[in-house]
Specification:
By secondary structure, this protein is of the alpha+beta class. Helix 2 runs parallel beside helix 6 and helix 6 packs antiparallel against helix 7. It starts with 7 loop residues before the first strand and ends with a strand.
Length: about 230
Amino acid sequence: MDFHNITFDVDDNVLELGLTVAAFVMRGLDNKPSTPEFDRYLEQETQRVLQHLSIEDIKKDPLLLGFRKLHERAGCSNRKNIAASENLLKFLLKTGHMTRVNLLVDIYNLVSLTSRLSLGAHDVELVGGNVHLRRTSGQEGFWPIGSGEPDSVKPGEYAYIDDDNDIICRLEVRQVEKTKVTLDTRECFYIIQGNSETSSDCLKTATENLIQLTRKFCGGEERILYKPW
């Protein structure tokens, strides 16, 4: 089976905001609800994160502050738009566990927790062509994941947008119904996003960790689409 011919590009005016990103695809994936081996690994890693986690830590963490500054530069409210990694950490601190979806999603959410970067995955079969990280015009299609209806976006935000002019991820905050990963997903487009406080080494380590864990628990092989190192 060949990789889909999907490509990914980033507009300079998004990079000028201080955003940093890596992207790749993986094919031949075998998704499952979970496995006992991953359950044990997840418990071990989330407990390790919890040992040093507090509200004060979340408020002052440089990487999480970097996402808030990124939103401000893009003219987006930090009250309404919280980076995915910050939301995951707050939920973990409140409940003591991570929300479970399926193995592919749980793996990237765990890497997001441990790296504090914002990660996402999209079913390549459902992406409309290629993906472009650019500022929004306000005319894009946007159906947030978990929502019963489409929503609108204002001009000037940054988003991951496919050739159908549909947003697949708004900021690094909200993914969509269109490309959500299910148990039937066999090929994923992955995003690993940071900000001006994120070093290339940090982004590279998170990307390599995500690939390694996905291979271990779901199989597959990767093709890098974009990397800043």
